[in-house]
Specification:
The chain has 590 residues and is mainly β. It contains five helices and 34 strands. The strands form seven sheets. An eight-stranded mixed sheet has the order 12-1-6-5-4-7-11-13, with no helix packed on it. A hairpin with a 2-residue loop joins strand 2 and strand 3. Helix 2 crosses helix 3. The radius of gyration is 36 Å and the shape is elongated. 40% of the residues are buried. About 17% of the residues have low confidence.
């Protein structure tokens, strides 16, 4: 019995030993690395069959072609978020294939719907279910024989997405300006009579019709093209191609700057049509009855180099805040009118500028100037009571036998110009009567004259104003009224000058918005399109460093600005003839 137990015990020990022997075997090697499992791409492909005038992103002769890297966004009647597609093949041609490849563990979400809307470029469109919104650039870079990348928005719609054929239609037309000359061009600006850049939208077009692009009221009338010193040729024209909304236009301003920033401008009233998906140009003679809407080649817009000024009538205009005479007891001796007035007379007499627009000029100061300076006529009115006389008629403004109602005056040389018309309006909701905005600190006006050159018969308008010193909000309101009145008074497109103490710079202000809208050209601005001597116009009698350029001269329908200057000279041994320096612009008529 004991032997049997012993045998079983030995057998159990052998089994345990064998078991432990197995656990000491060589370790198992790591398995071979496996390729990750990637699902097959799902491809939604769109085929575009487009005509030679209907594609969009680069230019070859008169054909607008697709380009490498083009992307579109696809919306539908049930998908307003949109899905992006990219160019698969067809770059450099008028036909292309677009694809949307999505790698997902599960099936991709398709672009569902029964009607599909295709928009180019992908990043610039949104859709709310009934209207599409896009943007038209107001600033583009020059590209030889082409136009800005992704600058020509296009649209197509259809009922079949996967493998479907679509015909893209440009929402705009191409506007070609051809220039000859010898200068190097740094900037070309086009300004039209309608908004052409900024936010734009259109409703879902009805079957068989083209989209109707609507530009927002806050958009710009100007497109600026910036160039890296493009050398013009006197024999062969250089083309500058802009994208412009289709439609009818009746006016165009062209401004060309050379490398130094000196501008040459041309302004023309004419009727012409920019056609969607076409190339529009102007004939070399700019005929008054308009131009062809879809001509293939543009010969030349008349353009002369900036140095070719011979034979053009020149005018020197000044804006000068003379500082009102009132409160003489509260200022230092050097600031008193009694100290400064002889220096102001010398400023007038020594320079004999053609036009001098003054602000903060009281009637008594105006009378002092006219009585002591020869050769000038003058028109102006006080801002608060609209008067310009020293008669005792019971007016509060005249209670001390002299006017303390400072206003704006326009002095003009009587040997060169005759006064054809004149007037005043208030910068308020009721510009034809004495009034002001509720938030305005002071009554503010604009006086204007229409002058005629005795030598050439050239007529032009001059507007002289002084905006409020309270805040940008009310100055913006006043600027809107000012522009509306100027447009009404200059409806025939005469050369015009707007000057004054605007109490704001052209940076981060309503005046910057106004300037960039292309309504007028500014003699001095932050882009230095003309000579700028860099002196600040507001000097505060040198009392502190918070000086700024708040005095401005703007112009329109002139050939060009020749020079801009700030007069910091000493007259009659007086270092500051006012708390503002006079600013001077030399303009050339067309």
């Amino acid at each position: 019995m004991e032997d049997k137990i012993m045998k079983r015990y030995i057998t159990l020990l052998a089994f345990i030993a064998a078991l432990f022997s197995c656990t000491k075997a060589a370790p198992v090697a790591d398995p071979e690395p496996q390729e990750p499992v990637i699902p097959e791409p799902v491809s939604n492909e769109i085929i575009f069959g487009v005509g030679s005038d209907d594609a969009k992103t680069s230019l070859s002769g008169t054909n607008v072609l697709w380009a490498e890297g083009d992307t579109i966004v696809v919306f539908s009647n049930t998908n307003t978020d949109g899905v992006k597609f990219k160019l698969k093949e067809g770059a450099g041609t008028t036909s292309a294939r677009f694809t949307n490849k999505i790698y997902e563990k599960e099936d991709p979400i398709p672009v569902s719907g029964s009607t599909f809307y295709l928009c180019y470029p992908a990043g610039d469109f949104s859709f709310n279910g009934s209207r599409f919104t896009t943007k038209l650039s107001s600033s583009v870079s020059y590209i030889e024989r082409s136009f800005g990348v992704a600058a020509n928005p296009s649209f197509a719609s259809g009922n079949k997405l996967d493998g479907g054929n679509f015909v893209m239609k440009n929402l705009c037309g191409l506007f070609k300006v051809s220039l000859k000359g010898s200068i190097k061009v740094s900037e070309v600006d086009l300004t039209f009579d309608k908004n052409i850049a900024g936010e734009a939208s259109f409703a879902i077009p009805t079957a068989g019709s083209d989209p109707v692009l609507e530009i927002s009221s806050g958009a710009s009338k100007t497109i600026a093209m910036y160039c890296d010193g493009i050398q013009l040729n006197k024999a062969t024209a250089t083309d500058f191609i802009f994208v412009v909304p289709a439609g009818s236009y009746s006016h165009i301003d062209l401004m060309v700057c050379d490398e130094s920033g000196t501008p040459t401008s041309m302004s023309k009233d004419l009727s012409f049509q920019v056609v969607r998906a076409g190339i529009t140009g102007l004939s070399s003679t700019l005929p008054e009855n308009g131009v062809a809407g879809t001509i293939e080649m543009l010969t030349e817009i008349p353009f002369t180099d900036a140095n070719e000024e011979k034979g053009r009538e020149e005018i020197k205009v000044v804006s000068f805040n003379v500082r009102a005479q009132r409160n003489e007891d509260d200022v230092t001796s050097e600031q008193k009118w009694t100290t400064r007035k002889n220096a102001v007379y010398d400023f007038f007499t020594q320079n004999q500028y053609d036009i001098i627009g003054t602000q903060e000029c009281e009637y008594r100061q105006k009378k002092n100037i006219i009585d002591n300076v020869s050769g000038y006529g003058v028109y102006g009115r006080g801002s608060e009571y609209g008067k310009d006389d020293d008669e005792e008629e019971g007016y509060i403004w005249n209670r001390k036998y002299h006017s303390q109602d400072s206003g704006n005056y326009i002095f003009y040389r009587t040997d060169k110009y005759t006064l054809e018309a004149s007037g005043i309006f208030w910068l308020s909701d009721t510009p034809s009567k004495i009034s002001k905005f509720k938030s305005s600190k002071h009554y503010r006006t604009c006086v204007w004259v229409r002058l005629k050159s005795k030598d050439t018969g050239q007529q032009f308008n001059v507007f002289n104003t002084h905006l409020d010193n309270s805040d940008d909000g009310v100055r913006g309101q006043q600027l809107d009224v000012l522009w509306a009145q100027i447009q009404s008074l200059n409806s025939t497109g005469k050369p015009m000058i707007m000057m004054g103490d605007m109490n704001m710079t052209t940076t981060n202000s309503p005046l910057e918005t106004f300037r960039k809208s292309g309504k007028m050209f500014f003699a001095r601005n932050e882009k230095n399109v003309c000579f700028d001597d860099a002196h600040k116009s507001y000097n505060c009698y040198g009392e502190y460093d918070g000086r700024s350029n708040i005095d401005h001269i703007a112009y329109k329908n002139f050939y060009k600005i020749k020079e801009f200057d700030t007069d910091i000279k000493t007259y009659h041994s007086v270092p500051y003839i006012s708390d503002h320096y006079p600013i001077i612009a030399t303009l050339l008529f067309n």
